[in-house]
Inverse folding.
């Protein structure tokens, strides 16, 4: 027995699934969903447990669940592990909440800056672009090859973006391999 419209429904379902898959990025072996916010996706990532713990300790959850849009340069657990021994544990102490919040908001930029927007800004700046962070600090973005952007913090440390354009309901995340430090 043939069901009327079955082919059309099947085609629409397959098209919707393909569209969803094209917009879904894997981070830490887990799918990131464009309809979820920054905090929900970071918590779902297998590579951002330290970042999520830090965001909670700094009381930034509600901010990063807000409407934004925000661009977050998200250090992985391995990036936090590269810090000197004891640094993360020390930052997570309640008495260091203000310092932790400053470091975390140094990784956040107002607006939705995907790869194309960052690359355009770098090209317009003659190979470099200064980016103001929510903390009030400045990051310097530079091209490093044909399709790789690096970020230099105010202390001269350089982070590579390993995963670009992880779109969120309230912005975009770029995964980075170092923790950026403000002055």
């Amino acid at each position: 027995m043939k069901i009327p419209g079955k082919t059309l429904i099947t085609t629409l379902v397959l098209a919707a699934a393909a569209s969803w898959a094209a917009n879904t990025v894997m981070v830490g072996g887990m799918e990131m969903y464009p309809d979820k916010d920054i905090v929900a996706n970071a918590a779902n990532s297998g590579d951002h447990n330290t970042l999520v713990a830090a965001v909670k300790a700094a009381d930034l959850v509600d901010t990063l669940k807000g409407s934004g849009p925000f661009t977050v340069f998200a250090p992985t657990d391995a990036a936090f592990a590269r810090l000197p021994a004891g640094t993360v544990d020390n930052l997570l102490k309640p008495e260091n909440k203000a310092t932790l919040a400053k470091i975390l908001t140094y990784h956040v930029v107002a607006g939705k800056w995907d790869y194309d927007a960052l690359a355009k800004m770098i090209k317009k700046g003659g190979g470099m672009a200064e980016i103001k962070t929510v903390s009030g600090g400045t990051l310097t973005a530079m091209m490093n090859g044909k399709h790789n952007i690096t970020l230099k913090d105010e202390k001269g440390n350089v982070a590579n973006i390993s995963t670009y354009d992880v779109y969120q309901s309230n912005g975009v995340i770029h995964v980075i391999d170092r923790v950026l430090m403000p002055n």
Notes: Residues 12 and 109 are 37 Å apart (CA to CA). The helical segments are 6-23, 38-44, 49-57, 61-64, 77-81, 87-91, 97-105, 115-124. The two ends are 72 Å apart (CA to CA).
